[in-house]
Amino acid sequence: MAGFSSSAYKGNHGDLAVHFIDVGQGDCALAVYKDYTILIDAGEISEKSKVITYLRSLDIERIDMIIASHPHSDHIGSLSAVIDRYGTDLLVIPEVTEEMTPVSSSFENMINSADKCGAELRFAEVGETLSVSEDFSIDFIAPVADYEDLNNYSIVCRLNYGENSFIFTGDIEEISERDIVDSGADISADVIKIAHHGSSTSSLKVFLQSVDPDYAVISVGSRNDYGHPHEKTLDLLRLLEINLYRTDYHGDIVIFSDKTNLTVVTENKEVPFDVYS
Fold first, then answer.
1. Residue 272 falls within a domain, yes or no?
2. Cα dihedral 111, 196, 190, 266 in deg (nearest 10)
3. What does pTM read for this prediction?
4. 3-state secondary structure of 46
5. For residue 128, is it within any domain?
6. Which residues of 81-107 are buried (b: 16+ CB within 10 A; e: fewer)?
7. What gap in Å lies between CA 1 and CA 250, rounded to an integer?
8. CA-CA distance, 254 to 267, in Å (whole number)?
9. 230: domain range?
10. pLDDT tens digits for range 86-142
11. DSSP state, 7?
12. 31, part of any domain
């Protein structure tokens, strides 16, 4: 974060700041509403120092809620270390079938760390809304069915603050996106975290049109081996005229809300290339 201090903007643009933390080829987002904190994923275990340092820079002492979108290491690898350092009151995970329940060390370590700090462990309940205040709440939207791939079990949730909203999609792919649209859930949002790092297997046009965002964020590693984000996704975002931010280009990204207006601040202010390419 050299040369970038998101805390310098705190309070200048509203009481909600949503941080998309650059953890390379992984996901990590932090919502700070006044003194209430929600962490969504935390990247690979190799990124634990980055995440902990970032949280320290914001003077965070404890995390109120952690949402582990789904049990893949590029999303939950650092969560055990973060929980050990900061603790949490609530850990929300997706409920998967018995045969899909992971046995990975990253998943087991996360559960053990949550248990040690006394956190409540809760499955995401589709249709549930958790209200933090009259102005700030979180809706749980997916997973709405059983799937054969853990990516599609990703928790999809929407943060609401006044007139603004942010939707987080984990690594859902087209089958889950279509199920969400078919469910009739209200998924409109001002900001979308693009699913699965901009993969070609996600971001259906009908899904993005249903969200109808002004801004999109892709959390992705620079020159990654997966070819993320895919040109198909980038072309669609351009076609739909959605303003795009990418962690591989912009570094850490913070979007502030004052209930009505959004302000975007990025670590790398000058990006000398087309973000849609």
1. no
2. 90
3. 0.95
4. helix
5. yes
6. bbbbebbbebbbbbebeeebeeeeebb
7. 11
8. 9
9. 10-266
10. 999 999 999 988 888 877 899 999 999 999 999 999 999 999 999 999 999 999 999
11. G
12. yes
Any idea of the CA torsion for 268, 208, 255, 19, to the nearest 10 degrees? -80
Whether residue 1 lies inside any domain: the answer is no
Q: Is the CB of residue 81 less than 8 Å from the CB of residue 112?
A: no
Question: What is the rounded CA–CA span in Å between residue 40 and residue 68?
Answer: 6
> pLDDT digit string (tens) for 34-76?
999 999 999 999 999 999 999 999 999 999 999 999 999 999 9
Structure token digits, residue 45: 């275990």
DSSP H or E segment with residue 158 = strand 156-161
**Left, alpha or beta for 196 (phi > 0: left; psi -120 to 50: alpha)?**
left
Which CATH number belongs to the domain containing residue 241 in this structure? 3.60.15.10
Contact 170, 192 (CB under 8 A): no
For the record, the structure tokens of 269 come out as: 């202010």
Number of independent structural domains in the chain: 1
